[in-house]
Design brief:
Elements lengths: L4 E13 L3 E8 L3 E7 L9 H4 L5 E8 L6 E10 L2 H4 L2 H17 L7 H16 L6 H14 L22 E4 L4 E3 L10 E4 L1 H12 L12 H15 L3 H6 L2
Parallel strand pairs: 3-5
Antiparallel strand pairs: 1-2, 1-4, 2-3, 4-5, 6-7, 6-8
Helix pairs in contact: 4-5, 5-6
The structure holds zinc ion.
Length: 246
């Protein structure tokens, strides 16, 4: 007998499957990411189509058939959505990138409540903020999320000798090793480059400071560049992710 399960979460992405169905990439609080097949959803009369749109927060009832690896949607209820994101294409497109990022990095069926809470908070901030204020939140989301899944760059002390380097001169960043090096230790590192104090401070703030204190904080273009290089290096070297990040 099929056992019904219920979960609350967000639709990250969805794609067409055969002629009438869609596969839903669902990020749930209870089970982490799930792939759910919504059969017959592309039929214009199917009420589930509207509920299962990206960015909607839904409660979904689903089940797994014997000898099948994918779950099937039995029913879905829209709990709420983010109208001020949906209405503004530029905001929506940033969240779509962020959803693709989560879909790429989060393993299936692995619960991670901290990332879930951070994602929810991010959506609330982006919904209410004007577009020109959301950049810092997005960058901070990427850095905080990779920290929560274990890829946080070391930003306070030298990776090798562990000397505290925050606010010091002549600090180097090593993308490959994942953090900063002192001028002495960097001599053995081929991939490191000198990082300006203000850029390091930017990275530190985006990683550790709450969103509410980042709204008017100045981020330099070089900071964005380093985040992009770091994420691309550590998460994948696939062309797909290079294209979607930042
Ligand atoms: Zn050192």
């Amino acid at each position: 007998m099929d056992i019904l399960k219920k979960a609350t979460g967000f639709i990250l992405l969805r794609k067409n499957f055969r002629s009438t169905s869609k596969i839903i990439d669902f990020y749930s609080k209870e089970y982490g990411r799930l792939l759910l097949l919504a059969k017959g959803i592309r039929d214009g009369k199917n009420y589930l189509n509207g509920s299962l749109e990206p960015l909607n927060c839904c409660e979904i009832i689903f089940y797994k058939k014997e000898n099948q690896t994918i779950y099937f949607v039995k029913d879905a209820f829209l709990l709420y959505n983010f109208p001020l994101i949906i209405k503004e294409y530029k905001k929506y497109s940033q969240i779509f990138d962020l959803n693709r990022f989560l879909s790429f990095i989060l393993p299936l069926e692995e619960k991670n409540e901290e990332v879930f809470r951070l994602y929810l908070l991010t959506l609330f901030f982006i919904n209410f903020l004007p577009y020109d204020k959301i950049r810092n939140i997005i960058l901070s989301f990427y850095l905080k999320t990779i920290a929560l899944i274990g890829f946080q760059p070391s930003l306070l002390a030298c990776l090798k000798c562990e000397k505290k380097l925050f606010q010091k001169k002549d600090v180097f960043f090593d993308t490959k090793k994942g953090g900063i090096l002192c001028s002495n230790c960097q001599k053995e590192s081929k991939n490191s480059f000198l990082i300006d104090k203000k850029i390091l401070e930017n990275l530190w703030h985006l990683s550790f400071i709450p969103y509410s204190k980042l709204l008017d904080y100045q981020i330099f273009p070089e900071t964005e560049k380093i985040i992009k290089i770091y994420l691309n290096y550590h998460l994948t070297d696939s062309l797909t992710l290079r294209k979607i990040l930042l």
